[in-house]
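Submission sheet (multi-component)
Chains listed below:
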Amino acid sequence: MTSSYNVFPNPVKIPHNDECPVCSRSAEGSVLPRKDAFWITCESCGRFAISGSAYATVGGRRHLFSPALRAKLSADIREQTSREPNFIFCTGWFKARYQ
Ligand SMILES: [Zn+2]
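Outcome: structure written.
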């Protein structure tokens, strides 16, 4: 009776000092069960799922992305999650929009 998207596992320390991989504000993270993905809860971006590879791309190489692009990405994630509750921010979604 549990949906993996609605399970809140124990919070985990996310990489990069508990900063949101998108906007760098302080955020809480947890691991999405059975997936290479994280839940991020950020006051700016909202609550969203991000794949491990997208996390590495966006969070691990944040110097490659301008503040303007990060602000747009943050807004786009909010909009996408509001329309699609099971949305996962993955590299395919990112590349389709920004590369
Ligand atoms: Zn954020």
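Remark: Confidence is low (pLDDT under 50) at residues 1-10.
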